[in-house]
Amino acid sequence: MQFGDLAEVFDRLEKTSSRLEMTDILAEFFRNVKPEEIRKTIYLSVGRLHPDFVPLELGMADKLVLKAIASVSGRRSEEVEDLWTKTGDPGEVAEMLIAKKKQMTLFSEPLSFQNVIEGLTAIENASGKDSQDKKMKLLARMLHDSSPLEARYLCRIVTGRMRVGAGTMTAMDALASAFASKEDRPDIERAFNITCDMGLVAETLASGGLDAVKGIEVSVGNPVKVMLAERLRSLPEIMERLGGKCAFEYKYDGIRVQAHIKKGPGGFVKLFSRRLEDLTSNFPDIGEALLRQLKGREAIVEGECVAYDPDTGTLQPFQNVTHRRKKHGMEKAVEDIPVRIFLFDMLYCNGEDYTLKPYSFRRMRLESSFKDDDSERYDRIGYTSRAIIDSDEKAQKFFDGAIAARCEGIMAKSLSEDSVYRAGSRGFLWIKYKKDYTQALVDSFDLTVVGAFYGMGKRAGKYGALLMAAYDPDTGRFGTACKLGTGFDDAFLDAMPGLLEKYRCETKPASLDAEMVPDVWFIPGVVLEVTAADISLSPIHTIAYGTVKEDAGLGLRFPRFTGRVRDDKTPEQCTTASEIVEFYRMQEDRDNGDVE
Length: 596
Ligand code: AMP
Fold this sequence. Notes:
With 596 residues, the protein is of the alpha+beta class. It folds into 3 domains: 46-159, Orthogonal Bundle (DNA ligase i, domain 1), CATH 1.10.3260.10; 228-438, DNA ligase/mRNA capping enzyme (D-amino Acid Aminotransferase, Chain A, domain 1, 2-Layer Sandwich); 445-591, CATH 2.40.50.140. It has 20 helices and 21 strands. β13 (463-472) and β14 form a beta hairpin. The termini are far apart. The mean pLDDT is 91. Adenosine monophosphate binds at residues 228-229, 249-252, 256, 274, 304, 344, 384, 411, 432. ATP binds at residues 249, 256, 274, 304, 344, 426, 432. Residues 332-472 form the ATP-dependent DNA ligase family profile domain.
């Protein structure tokens, strides 16, 4: 395959906002290329050479790319920078200048896909004192042989600016259409949810068919998409929904960690956040304890890391554990902030995939998998407090105990035979109930930034307000939920442009439905925690559009930023459309006096 073929596909995808059309374009392309090329294409479509959880990035700075463009096009660097200031996109600059250059020179080799992969791999691996110069030259070499369109995508790939609009959902539809059928889509989706590697799933499907995909299993080192909980408005409702008997666990307020542990030669421990970031270096003490105390050979377990006072055994507020997410001063943070992991699930053990086993089985195995540690000041591994609950009274008592122990609330878990670990989905097998639900104000929402409005007055020259969106997993689309302009302190207002820059895009993101038009668009990336006075029907906001009322969406009233950037959540793990509808209904009931 030539790189030009792929550049053309990217261009066609970018020009349409119809998901169906994108699916057709991709399916046709997948049918015509080799399985390993499909795999790399999937990574390249988001500007990477590996799946998301591999922490290697091409990450070339814009200025370095501009230097390469100047050297290939023979333009002065001021001229190149000038164009960059106007467009904000090195891809566009390269396209314009290479187009002009091409009119003058016709000597270049066609750029093969393989050459591009090799060139990008060399860029990624360049290290040492002169690594920046090496990267610049490697890019310049590829730009020399590229067409204007190829240059656009090369520069976007290396600067992390790929925005072709076709997300994972569309890729899965296209794979099903190219190599299987619509009915097989759930098998493809499960394989992705347990490996987090769409490239692997695509290559397996293209080369071995659906049976090979069905054979994909959880494996140590590949994160599994986390299972999420639904929420209900009262404890009796939860009891009823779970058949009158279920397990309750404390809901700890910390950082969720999925630990992959392998002992022996070639062994390792890797800790992933729910966003699939590698958190191993943030919790070295927890990683070591898990490796030391695991009885078996290998395992995948999940738990919540919470700041903890070893002398009194009391849990510390969420803010304390966030110091462990810092980039610098980690050694000191490890010493100053003792952390304990409260384990709640086991997804894999000694070669056996547990994700399709019921909750009670997983929990039983979990509790017998780690040794106690008496040699240290305190045991870093614990299990979430838990009880089997079969009445509303016991439910209330357990909830009160959780709050007294400084937890956020409880997690109710189904005891039924089909209570599998539903990787990547939110469902009623787990139901959360938090202290906030009992208060007049609704709970906080995690929303993603999709736009910004320039500020005025004191905020001139900065962003003054943000357009925030929630996610609808049923459609795979985002919808706006509010314009947020309150709760920002000066430090956050200053930091905001930097935080958002890498998500900036020229037009409305393809996965977003929006009526309101901000000054700047962002693809969903940054998640902020927001509170609101209530939720109302909205003629302008698009989340849950048509669900409560035919021609209206739902909007948050008097939204306020809590100061918490939820960098542990992906935009798809934001508050969902159905949760917002649930809040709206909860509030209607409260207003009607139906909820105590
Ligand atoms: P939320 O972030 O409000 O959607 O609540 C779900 C989160 O609660 C999970 O992602 C975990 O980080 C956290 N959590 C705390 N305790 C538990 C528990 N016992 N079982 C499952 N999740 C828990």
